[in-house]
Amino acid sequence: MKHVLESVENQFETFQILDENGKVVNKADMPDLSDEDLKELMRRMVYTRVLDQRSIALNRQGRLGFYAPTAGQEASQLGSHFALEKEDFLLPGYRDVPQLIWQGLPLHQAFLWSRGHYAGGQFPEDVRALFPQIIIGAQFVQAAGVALGIKKRGKQAVAVTWTGDGGTSQGDFYEGMNFAGAFKAPAIFIAQNNGFAISVPREKQTSAKTLAQKAIAAGIEGIQVDGMDVLAVYAATKHARVRAINGEGPTLIETLTYRYGPHTMSGDDPTRYRSDELNSEWEKKDPLIRFRKFLEGKKLWSEEEETKVIEEAKSDIKEAIKKADQAPKQKVTDLIGFMYEELPVNLQTQLEEYQAKESK
Amino acid sequence: MAQMTMIQAITDAMRNELKNDENVLVFGEDVGQNGGVFRATEGLQKEFGEDRVFDTPLAESGIGGLAIGLALEGYRPVPEIQFFGFVFEVMDSVAGQMNRLRFRTGGTKNAPITVRAPFGGGVHTPEMHSDSLEGLIAQTPGIKVVIPSTPYEAKGLLISSIRDNDPVVFLEHMKLYRSFREEVPEEEYTIELGKAAVKREGKDVTVVAYGAMVHSSLKAAEELEKEGIDVEVIDLRTVSPVDYDTVIESVNKTGHAVVVQEAQRQAGIAANIVAEIQERAILHLEAPVLRVTAADTVYPFSEAEDVWLPSHQDIVEKIKAVVNF
Questions:
Q1: Among the record's GO biological process terms, what is one (chain A) (predicted)?
Q2: Across the A/B interface, how many CB contacts are shorter than 8 Å?
Q3: Does B190 fall in a domain?
């Protein structure tokens, strides 16, 4: 029976366009991106790398709160996001703040979310997205619902959601994909496989050789992609979006990626479970290095341009942190006000109590 | 006016809202062509189409997520959980997600979802069908819990629940589905959520109840009338938030109170009522507030329901104990 399993697994070969040296290894699937698009993708990746470095520093200074590092996942996060449109609805996990920012969430609000301030969840009306989901898997079942809603409304759009490799073990991961499949709903499910769920290696989550093959259980298409290759991630997501909008249902995309930093800044020490060898092996695969080489080969990128992006990012971050500092201090009466459209009697009473307390 | 059972009144409320608001969607396991395992959605798919009333895969958590996602696209979902004992599968969607959507988005998004589910004992169901789990949700900020006890109220409360722009868990007692008929207006009407009803006026003792226990309490009151004890029966109708003003006003008048629930003593919401009464009316009390509840065991094997479920006789005894304290 061994060949049966093999025949399944052989359907999920890693999709790649750029190799580690920035060389195109798959011309046939090269996405149709203009020079400006390619530069914009690089700009976003560099900017997001700086954002990660600064966020870690700001967290250490106590100027940010909860933060889940993103360095290493730029191709996975931004390549998939770049294939989307403004009318698509994003359901990110807690590590997927960069996608929200490039969807239009102001940076200072992302920082307020990190700090734990209600204004961090008050997204601008034209940003079709939910806050980063803390309950791993919940975004998958909700994405199925958003996608069904989009389908019922007859919109040309998709619902897109991201989780990690550990998240693929959750019931909601399976239910979300299966529901979207049963309703042929326009959803894109992305499993960013960075090899570890906190300290637990991906092999301890499942015996399945790929995570992409989990799509089979839902009867939907699954793609495994080199998650350090921004062009491959973009092409796979674009393909999934076209399928979804054409009424062909959802797709699961597994991106093989890596996070250079800890799981979160809340006391995780990755030296306990990851070796230096593993780190350096993945550092060679850095999505920025290979895309930079690719663009330099096409004379589309220079050191000056990169420096400009870095400076721009740093200055934006500085401004955003200042703006976040100016947010009003939260009061219990604010929190009461966000509970219901009309306050029930218990909260009316408590509102009065806290109003009295706050006016002292 | 028409004579309706509670299940017919519930169907009627959903039909009314499906007609009234094109964003209303009814879905769940077997609610479509089959019309629901209790016929609650009978005829609705035929009348409104598969786009409005539809079956789902068998996965409660998925149903909860579906409701939240549809709400984010501007729909007004009315999902059904086939039996409330299955709520554990969807506890995160209900008590970790939809209840806090408005809060987490700083008031910029909301979840106008009404989760309907049958519960309640006395009909010899298999395991995990009849458990009274309203206490779990009543502890959850951001969600209302409604439990009607009559056909008339079921319709008015369900219409209000569906129109509410925040999530509501609407629990339907299985024993009350077809146990009696009453006059229910065919036109639409609403009953305000969070408002109790005095079902029987009395001057000696206040009985606070909800669900099937309202009828047991009324039966107990009738029996005690013969013994000269005048019982006031309050039907909470909404168990979160509770209409404490009505309760306190009654206790201030009678000076005695008994709280009646079908749930186990450590569950339900009776302890909340007792606490509020002692905070707000202790100087009017002539006796401690006692509770009629089930025993703190797992919900019984079906043949043991008769001895386990609180009966009107249990209520009679507790009322006497309070009045004769």
A1: branched-chain amino acid catabolic process
A2: 135
A3: no
Which pLDDT band holds residue A1 (cuts at 50, 70, 90)?
A: low
User: Is CATH 3.90.950.20 correct for A1-329?
Assistant: no
Backbone angles phi, psi at B137, to 5 degrees: -80, -35
Residue B189 lies in a domain: no
Provide the pLDDT for residue A31. 97
- Identify the CA nearest to B319 among candidates B222, B175, B211: B222
The CA-based angle B243-B244-B246, given to 5 degrees, is: 75
**Residue A24 DSSP code:** B
Residues A325 and A58: their CA atoms lie apart, in Å, by 13
Using the beta-carbon criterion (under 8 Å), do A175 and B68 form an inter-chain contact?
A: no
Average pLDDT in the A246-275 region? 94
Chain B contacts to A (CB-CB under 8 A): 51, 56-57, 59, 61-62, 64-75, 92-93, 96-97, 102-110, 141-142, 144, 164-166, 194, 241-245
Would residue A263 show up in a list of annotated catalytic residues for this protein? yes
Q: Which amino acid is at B42?
A: E
Cα A329 from Cα A319, distance rounded (Å): 19
Handedness of CA A85, A88, A94, A97 (dihedral sign): positive
Six-digit token string for B29: 């396991």
- B213 and B164 within one domain: no
pLDDT of residue A310: 98
Residue B284 sits in a domain whose CATH number is 3.40.50.920
- State pLDDT tens for residues A67-117: 999 999 999 999 999 999 999 999 999 999 999 999 999 999 999 999 999
Two structure tokens written together for A74: 């730029």
Position A4 scores a pLDDT of: 77
Query: From the candidates A54, A115, A128, A259, which is the catalytic residue?
Result: A259
In this structure, are residues B246 and B234 in contact, taking their beta carbons and an 8 Å threshold?
Answer: yes
Report CB contact under 8 Å: A175, B103.
no
Same domain, B216 and B311: yes
Q: For chain B, what is the domain count?
A: 2
Q: Which of A123, A140, A152 sits opposite B51 (nearest CB)?
A: A152
CATH of the domain at B156: 3.40.50.970
Ordered mean pLDDT values, 10 residues apiece, chain B (325 residues): 95 98 98 96 98 98 98 98 98 98 98 98 96 98 98 98 98 98 97 98 98 98 98 98 98 98 98 98 98 98 97 98 97
pLDDT band at A5 (very low <50, low <70, confident <90, very high): confident
pTM for the model stands at: 0.97
Q: Are residues B287 and B239 in the same domain?
A: yes
- ipTM metric: 0.97
Backbone angles phi, psi at A256, to 5 degrees: -85, 110
* pLDDT band at residue A7 under the 50/70/90 scheme: confident
CB atoms within 10 A of CB A236: 30
What pLDDT band is residue A2 in, cutting at 50, 70 and 90? low
User: Annotated catalytic sites of B, by residue?
Assistant: 129
Nearest-by-Cβ selection for A341 from B72, B166, B241: B166
Closest by alpha carbon to A259, among A235, A283, A234, A237?
Answer: A283
Best residue in B29, B73, B245, B272 to probe A by mutation, most A CBs within 10 Å?
B73
* Separation of CA B139 from chain center: 14
B192: in domain:
no
Nearest beta carbon to residue B66 from set A119, A138, A145: A145
